[in-house]
Write a structure and sequence with these properties.
The structure is a homodimer.
Chain A: E1 7-12, H1 16-31, E2 35-41, E3 46-48, H2 61-67, H3 75-83, E4 89-93, H4 98-102, H5 104-109, E5 112-115, H6 120-123, H7 126-135, E6 149-150, H8 162-170, E7 175-181, H9 184-193, H10 205-214, H11 223-226, H12 229-241, H13 268-275, H14 279-291, E8 294-303, E9 308-317, E10 329-336, E11 344-349, H15 353-371
Parallel strand pairs in A: 1-2, 1-4, 4-5, 5-6
Antiparallel strand pairs in A: 2-3, 7-8, 7-10, 8-9, 10-11
Chain lengths: ~375, ~375
């Protein structure tokens, strides 16, 4: 494990995304035998490889982790553990922890590359964003030993959103406008509540939310989808990449679909029980769109020139690409100087363990290719 | 120019794509001051940097090339010239030359990376394809000094098609089916000839071809678009990437839109003059689709399991994503094990100098990041 060509990988989080990632890593390790998995840590347990002996098994990690008696590692412990290993280390953060996100600059400055779907690092304060930019490797930056930072799955899961925007910018294009549907849950809800083909009207709003919850398409508490914050976080990430220094999700209009009366209701169950009382409001929104020959969708927009972000309900022509979405698909359209008549559009599943892990694994491959 | 960190770049072709690429390279050189442009060669002239002195100017290259009295370099001369430079060399082939494509293995084996939009290298014989694969760098291959090979713009110009397919495969997804519209010219022709919104019927076929030709959307001889070979080449590239060893564009059904009677007509002008005689055929195709409530489009398909490729006219539902294309957009849908309900879709301008050059420049950045 001490060969200079070894790449040491620590994985935080072993739930939906983490499990899929480790399965993809197992496939990858046949192509890159220099990969050494040295740490898996989840909420209650952790598993560490003994330094300079053998890496963790990608075949039996789940059983080994379950049998482990070591508690989860703190961020400080993780940093110390990786810091003691020789060069070429990667932290794969499959959590959504703000604590871990806050520590990226510390990892990067130690030359540890970071790969993550965790939105928090890029959508919290501008200070953290700036600190991450300054701590990650750039050509001809003062500190050439800094780690690489990749986060494809922080927007649209495995869809090529971040990489495409990165390429547009790096090759000198000017992005004028970004628009899209950034939440698989809200896509699913509106595609069913107000189908574009007019074949069916869709049920009441509370029925659709209930069906989506039962099908596993929402967070355990659907208010975590309906408040629009997840979409706002993704917009902040894209906006900052194109140079709009937005301070956070609180600094632009984000429409919440939670009735104000239900914001303080205690449990998710109590919320679901009372949601039907407010169906009339969403019905009016739907009917108004129908009267105009349109459909209602939950859209996020970045207007780069005006430095303006916006998240909320919009009425769209039925021929609009957003109106024609299906299932829980995301769609992102980049309007640029080069893609001027029609945008560059990426569309497909934007949530789920396998596709989110795919973005993480693809990022890891890029790190391996660059540090090998 | 002899620093170990220098990256020497030779550019073949200085027409539509080449000119845009050199303009993007100029922007890039501010971020990567270790880039040295050492050769530009076009059909009749070439410009070389003196070894170990100063690189060519990215500001005045066009004037300098026009004033040059050196003839174009042969492939052998180009290989010798780059071979004499120290490590870290990139050949950027912006031509569509089969000769140059045939020589990629020789460049790669000398450790020279190749970046290109040239379809010929990847859609000619399987022998050339195999030779390029075996000559380009792979981790743990026997020859670690081989060059890197990137060709994003060989399909869909700057759209992230090749990189997305590469990521899907590398992360362990199984691609089942690829379908799309792969020709900007044929997209434009059919979007106008048979609009999906039914608002206008479109003109006669020969009128639409004439309009497209006058607007600069076709090759000088429109038969080079109408024969379907360009689409077939792109399908061959994608099919081989997913492991379908198709021998070439002649080994699967490719529908030509050139009336058999006009195949041997001498000039493009004579062809255009007589095309109207055959409008009735395309009119019947359009009417048949209309009767079925559909629209006609020129589609390419790869069925991975059946190892079957197909290029030609298809009747599609008006709600199909292909039917809703606009302008000269390309669209590519990947149906995979992970993107199973709905495909991963990429859409946008698939032709034009600036967007084609963008794919080349983005590839070059990846090479620079990996060899730096």
């Amino acid at each position: 494990m001490s060969s200079v060509n070894q790449i040491y990988i620590a994985v935080l989080g072993a739930g939906g995304v983490g499990r899929h990632f480790l399965s993809q890593l197992s496939v990858l390790s046949h192509k890159f035998p220099n990969i050494s998995l040295v740490l898996i840590s989840r909420s209650t347990k952790s598993l560490r490889a003994s330094h300079r002996t053998t890496p963790l098994s990608l075949e039996t990690w789940e059983k080994d982790l379950n049998e482990s008696t070591s508690p989860a590692l703190t961020v400080t412990q993780t940093l110390k553990f990786l810091g003691e290993l020789p060069d070429k280390r990667v932290l794969v953060d499959n959590t959504s922890s703000q604590d871990v996100a806050d520590s990226y600059p510390a990892f990067l400055k130690q030359g540890i590359s970071v790969v993550t779907p965790n939105k928090k690092a890029f959508s919290s304060t501008m200070d953290l964003w700036t600190s991450i930019q300054e701590s990650s490797y750039r050509p001809y930056a003062p500190y050439l030993s800094y780690g690489l930072m990749y986060h494809e799955s922080s927007v649209g899961a495995g869809l090529p959103i971040i990489s495409t925007l990165t390429d547009l910018i790096a090759t000198g294009d000017t992005v004028r406008r970004i628009e899209g549907v950034f939440s698989g849950t809200l896509s699913y809800l509106f595609n069913n509540f107000a189908p574009a083909d007019g074949s069916a009207k869709g049920g009441t709003w509370s029925d659709e939310v209930r069906k989506a919850k039962e099908a596993g398409f929402t967070e355990p508490d659907p208010r975590d989808d309906l408040n629009g914050v997840d979409v706002a976080r993704k917009l902040v990430i894209l906006a900052r990449m194109v140079g709009v220094p937005v301070e956070g999700t609180g600094s632009f209009p984000v429409q919440s679909l939670i009735p104000a009366e239900l914001e303080r209701v205690g449990s998710a169950e109590a919320f679901m029980e009372r949601l039907g009382e407010f169906d009339k409001r969403m019905d009016e929104v739907r009917n108004e769109a129908v009267r105009e020959g349109k459909v209602v969708r939950f859209v996020g927009r970045v207007d780069v020139e005006a430095k303006a972000l916006k998240v909320g309900l919009e009425k769209l022509d039925k021929a609009h690409p957003i109106a024609g979405l299906e299932g829980s698909d995301n769609i992102v359209s980049f309007y640029t100087e080069r893609y001027v008549d029609n945008p560059l559009v990426v569309r497909g599943a934007g949530a789920g363990g396998a596709v989110t892990a795919m973005g993480v694994t693809a990022d890891l491959i890029k790190v391996i290719q660059r540090v090998s």
